[in-house]
Amino acid sequence: MEIPLVLDTYFTHLLAQKGQPLLIAGPCSAETEEQVLATAHGLKALGKVDLFRAGIWKPRTRPGSFEGMGSVALPWLQRVKAETGLPTTVEVATPRHVEEALRHEVDVLWIGARTTVNPFAVQELADALAGTKVPVMVKNPVNPDVALWAGALERMERAGITDLAAIHRGFSTFAPSKYRNAPTWMLPIELKTRFPQLPLICDPSHIGGRRDLLLPIAQKALDLDYDGLMIETHPDPDRALSDAEQQVTPQRLGEILGELNYRYRSS
Ligand code: PEP
Ligand code: MN
Hints:
The chain is α/β, with parallel strands linked by helices. It has a single domain (about 10-260), classed as Aldolase class I (TIM Barrel, Alpha-Beta Barrel). Helix content is about 40%, strand content about 10%. The protein contains eleven helices and eight strands. It has helices spanning about 10-20, 35-45, 75-85, 95-105, 115, 120-130, 145-160, 185-195, 205-210, 215-225, 250-260, and strands at about 20-25, 50-55, 90, 110, 135-140, 165-170, 200, 230. Strands 1-2-3-4-5-6-7-8 form an eight-stranded parallel barrel, surrounded by six helices. Helix 2 packs parallel to helix 3, helix 6 packs parallel to helix 7 (about 145-160) and helix 7 packs parallel to helix 8 (about 185-195). The chain binds phosphoenolpyruvate and manganese (II) ion (MN). Manganese (II) ion binds near residues 28, 232, 242 and 243.
């Protein structure tokens, strides 16, 4: 596949400006306007966050769980941008999500692990995105299948979306593991060998599933020269409506960042 060697994508610009891995942070789910704004202001105060994430439409494993606030939360993200200047990103899984997110000026979209796994869904998203200039981050599929991950990126590229990044969020496994999703670090390396210029972001929150694993997983990603980290943050993590065990306060995120050893990037 051709993800062309364009060095003026959204992600490469941010990386060049910062000279350090990007940081994407925000709650697993947008729950209330107050929660979203409190998180965003807390993150802004750290002075290190590049992109504010929040799930609006949540792909929950079982029905009856909190499935996200839906479109009512999109104006909250517009308020985040107006008040903090932070650009925003949400997960999209259907053409309607794409249309609504773009209408509300969401800056970057991401495709979740449960969508990347389905070529029909990915193709519908690619068709909906064709002709837009929006940057797109593609999470790995839930299962350890690099070809499927690459295929989703190729579908984007063929639709004219070349402003792409990949997110490693770990792979589901039957084997007992301390991780929520096994990191299997070789698989993203395999993706990078296929697309060397593609920015690669690590999501320690969904790999670890536990707060105490965020630091070692993030450190490993930095040691492997990842281009960014995505870490879930919530003002009151224990009361989060989704992924409570893995979220940290913005203040705790600041401490974790302080403990990370950032190598000097070679490129
Ligand atoms: C998320 O980012 O909150 C999420 C649902 O992630 P994933 O698609 O990696 O499970
Ligand atoms: Mn989550």
